[in-house]
Amino acid sequence: MIIINTQEQFDLEVLKADKPVMVDFFADWCGPCKALAPLIEELDQEADGYLVAKVNVDELPELAQQYRVISIPTILVFRGGVCEERSVGLVGKEALLNLIHGEE
Length: 104
Hints:
Blueprint (H helix, E strand, L loop, with lengths): L1 E3 L2 H9 L5 E6 L4 H16 L4 E6 L4 H6 L7 E6 L2 E7 L4 H8 L4
Parallel strand pairs: 1-3, 2-3
Antiparallel strand pairs: 2-4, 4-5
């Protein structure tokens, strides 16, 4: 799992990645984020053909604002440096897998 600590790291590890990247925008105080965390961890361990990253919105508010993250948890999927998919709120594993694989 990639823990994003700076804008520069986000640019390098997410926007310039050669695989799709699922980015979890979260906060330590957020109950639904805590509930989603084990699932994000599981997806990271099972990752095949994609990467998983986490962004703490309290530590990088500019990044959250840049991608219009208003509610958390928000999951964004980047392909080729472009945000192509978005999910807001607590969702299940199947929904996240569909998101990362670009399926409806």
